[in-house]
Amino acid sequence: MDLRNLRYFLAVAEAGGFTAAAEQLHIAQPAVSMAIRKLEQTLDLPLFDRQERRVRLTDEGEVLLRHARTILQAVEDAERDMRELHTLERGEVRVGIPSMLGSYYFPPILMAFRHRYPGIRLEVIEAGTRKLQQMIHAGEIDMGVIVSDTPPEDLETHRFLRAQMMAILPADHALASAPSISYDAFFAEELVMFKEGYFHREVIDRISREAGVTPQIGFEANLIPLIKQIVSHGYGITTLLEMVVADDPSLVAVPFTPEVWLDLSLAWRKGHRLSRANQTFVDLVLAQADTTNR
């Protein structure tokens, strides 16, 4: 099976048409059509239903699509590994990090990695942990940060941080000096929360379901500086890791009762061998974790 024809097939399937695929591939449309015909002849199976204006995959095409994604991702992985076989002078690391950790935990690690390996391209994608899991499965990123209390069976995970989730209150709040805050007291307040898909929001949603209460969410935002400003001005309270407010005298971090701890891990596809560049990045993150936890 010709890999080029397989790439053209994937492009047509994802673009929904031969012309759109040709534009994405920067080639002439007849070349795409010819490649698909050759692929269908090789397999002796119809791959697209061409009766409608927007071509659609046949049942046989749907089966091939699943294999095509796996095959082409494997080829891409192999080519990248070969480029990096002898040296870390070139390479790429694509890592997904939630905004909270990307802003307050990872900057020193990212800068240290960049300083040691200036030839490696480092791409950092910000998203919620749920979205990052989807991106790992789709091959859009090499690895991502997830909450690993119940890690998916098809991901390999390595914990690098155990952090306590804290209630964040303005310094003049009535509960700011309390040793802890109960779930009932927390949910009695108007809340400023991350949008769905982020690990802090998922934990709060789970706790509220278990407590049988409906959170009073006054603001939804993923911008940490905005969340901190809203809370500091008394328009609600929120949850963050303590590191986010450590240097902000206008905000106070109060632990929950019972306490809420999060295990944060780097994750990648199980059975997928990391490239040397990616493995080096993982080693640096885990070494930093060992240093921090001593």
TrEMBL record:
Keywords on record: DNA-binding, Transcription, Transcription regulation
Q: Domain HTH lysR-type: where?
A: 1-58
User: Which Pfam families does the entry link to?
Assistant: HTH_1, LysR_substrate
Does this UniProt record's set of keywords contain Transcription?
yes
In terms of InterPro entries, this protein maps to: HTH-type_LysR_regulators, LysR_HTH_N, LysR_subst-bd, WH-like_DNA-bd_sf, WH_DNA-bd_sf
Q: Which PROSITE patterns match?
A: HTH_LYSR
Q: Which family does it belong to?
A: Belongs to the LysR transcriptional regulatory family.
Report what the protein is called. Answer: LysR family transcriptional regulator
